[in-house]
Design a protein that fits this description.
With about 575 residues, the chain is an alpha/beta fold. It folds into two domains: about 300 residues, ABC transporter type 1, transmembrane domain (ABC transporter transmembrane region fold, Up-down Bundle); about 250 residues, Rossmann fold (3-Layer(aba) Sandwich), CATH 3.40.50.300. The protein contains 19 helices and twelve strands. The chain is elongated. Helix content is about 65%, strand content about 10%.
Length: about 575
């Protein structure tokens, strides 16, 4: 948590002026009981109306100046807290972007969202409150005790006993609550994970009629969160009643001692009222301080969780652009796997074992295999989304680990398995491929991706507004737009990771033909479970349980590779059967 506070250095002026104006307000507040005592003893006691009016005007003036000081302090504190929150959010988001897929898979998306939103809001709010109250409340507490000694030293001894006792209660409860609030935030992660899974997988849940089971799972996690919150809440709730009991006992003792002192003629009635006001100020400020500390305990837990993410080093380090290797564009082999293997973090075994093959420039490579065979894992090694745990992957004769990130990724256009679009126009989404792409280049990519026709039919064409996640488009339309987005950047290597699964066979065939006829002739990797999509590839790699069990052209594999033959015959028999039914 303390490491996060260093980002307040950008707001030094606000961080200093905010507490200073609060201290000015507190100082004026400490003068009020003395003015009230003077009004009682001199104004009312001597029936001096002029003096009373003058001192009342002084009270109003103190209140007005205190109000201005308070508003000014709030302005500076809010500016510093919001600016601090902005800096940390940017830092956290940038760090998340630097994490490899391995770290993101390990931490979990729901946890990262919680740290970025709920935890960050808690920390920002606590910074705001701390700048306003962290100095003010102790200043008023100890200032009231000092002022009480100026009124009457013997009566003020009550303050000497009360304040340490209250501090012991407040800080004791704080130390107990800090680890408990961390546990509460962990339980909140579980609830958010459940909500996220249910919202993203609502169609699957309804298809399998698992609504009641998911409701019970959510209720169980929610009950665990509620129980954790209630437990820490009960401990935190002790603070107010215990502090009130101590304060009221101190008030009783103060009034008793004050009454005896007044009867002896040592104290005036106004002085007793002043002492009572100082005790009341201590009560109010300690309640504020107690609430602040409760907030701080939560924010410390949240801040530690944020810092825990920032402390996770990325397992994927890219060299600086100046030190990065330069690709040899004349190299005949554009992609080469040299005995590359991949093991995911925490996995029991390898997802890929001994990938060893080379791809020439301009070739089309098909990758096929059963579910879980490692097809996506293989192509993810090329843009270095994951690092090979053994062996190496080369692009243009250079190890991908020796590339600058921008230089490597600019060579490659990736169309992921899941078609992801962002809220905005079609033009804005396609310009993710290349920010300076012209409408003519975008249109050319749409034609190649077989998307030009449906885009032209949309109201506004390229200015048609896509909803979040592309929810106002069909699955096939989303896939074709993601393909067009990759084509806009005119990549040297194009990876189509099962990106035509929602397309019919005719559109899929037209897409593959258009890509082959592209003027730049990129090297294409097509990941698919459809044998028909790969039949005309220059090379087909057949995977089974993370191993290469066949490699070659369609005709060769059909006779030599049992796995490929099984996939091919199972699909084409099914299609023949369907065709027979349609003719019948």
């Amino acid at each position: 948590m303390l490491q996060l506070l260093k980002h307040l250095r950008h707001y030094k002026k606000e961080s200093i002026l905010g507490p200073l104006f609060k201290l000015l307000e507190a100082l004026l507040e400490l003068l009020v009981p003395l003015v009230v005592a003077a009004i009682i003893d001199k104004g009312i006691g001597n029936a001096d109306k002029g003096y009373t009016v003058k001192m009342c005007l002084l009270l109003a003036g103190l209140g007005l100046v205190g109000l201005v000081s308070s508003v000014t302090a709030q302005y500076f504190a809010a500016k510093a807290a919001v600016g601090f929150g902005e800096k940390v959010r940017h830092l956290l988001f940038a760090h998340m972007q630097e994490l490899s897929y391995s770290e993101i898979d390990t931490i979990g998306t729901s946890t990262l969202i919680t740290r970025m939103t709920s935890d960050m809001n808690q920390v920002q709010g606590s910074v705001n409150m701390s700048l306003r109250l962290l100095l003010r409340s102790p200043f008023v507490v100890f200032g009231a005790m000092v002022m009480a000694f100026t009124v009457d030293a013997q009566a003020a001894l009550t303050f000497v006993v009360t304040i340490p006792l209250l501090s012991l209660v407040v800080f004791g409860i704080m130390l107990v609550c800090i680890p408990l609030y961390k546990r509460v935030q962990d339980k909140l992660d579980g609830v958010l994970c459940s909500v996220r899974e249910n919202l993203t997988g609502v169609r699957v849940i309804r298809a399998f009629r698992k609504e009641n089971e998911e409701i019970r799972r959510f209720q169980r996690r929610n009950e665990e969160l509620t129980a954790a919150q209630e437990f820490v809440g009960k401990i935190s709730a002790l603070m107010n009643p215990v502090t009130y009991v101590i304060i009221n006992a101190a008030v009783i003792a103060l009034v008793y001692v004050g009454a005896l002192r007044v009867e002896q003629g040592v104290l005036t009635q106004g002085a007793v009222v002043a002492l009572y006001n100082y005790m009341s100020q201590i009560l109010v400020e300690l309640v504020k301080l107690a609430n602040l500390i409760i907030g701080l305990t939560k924010s410390v837990a949240c801040g530690n969780r944020i810092q825990a993410v920032l402390d996770i080093p990325s397992s994927m380090v890219f060299p600086e652009a100046a030190a990065a290797a330069v690709a040899d564009k004349s190299h005949e082999t554009v992609v080469e796997f040299r005995h590359a293997s991949l093991r995911y973090a925490g996995a029991g075994g390898h997802a890929l074992t001994d990938m060893n093959f080379a791809v020439r420039r301009g070739e089309t490579v098909g990758i096929i295999g059963g579910t879980g065979a490692g097809k996506t894992s293989l192509v993810n090694l090329i843009p270095r989304f994951y690092d090979a745990s053994e062996g190496e992957v080369l692009v243009d004769g250079v190890n991908v680990k020796d590339y600058d990130k921008a230089a490597l990724r600019d060579k490659i256009g990736v169309v992921p398995q899941k078609a992801v679009l962002f809220k905005g126009t079609i033009r804005e989404n396609l310009q993710w491929g290349r920010g300076d792409a012209s409408d003519e280049e975008i249109q050319q990519a749409l034609v190649t991706a077989q998307a030009a026709e449906f885009v032209a039919d949309k109201e506004g064409g390229l200015d048609y507004e896509i909803a979040q996640g592309g929810k106002n488009l069909s699955g096939g339309q989303r896939q074709r737009l993601t393909i067009a987005r990759a084509l806009v950047r005119k990549p040297a290597i194009l990876i189509l990771d099962d990106s035509a699964s929602a397309l019919d066979f005719a559109t899929d065939a037209a897409l593959r033909k258009a890509i082959r006829n592209m003027p730049d002739s990129p090297t294409v990797f097509i990941v698919s479970q459809r044998a028909a999509s790969l039949m005309y590839a220059d090379k087909i790699v057949v995977l089974d349980d993370g191993n290469i069990v066949g490699m070659g052209r369609h005709d060769e594999l059909l006779s030599d590779c049992k796995v490929y033959a099984e996939i091919y015959h199972s699909q084409f028999k099914q299609e023949d059967g369907k065709a027979g039914e349609q003719h019948a």
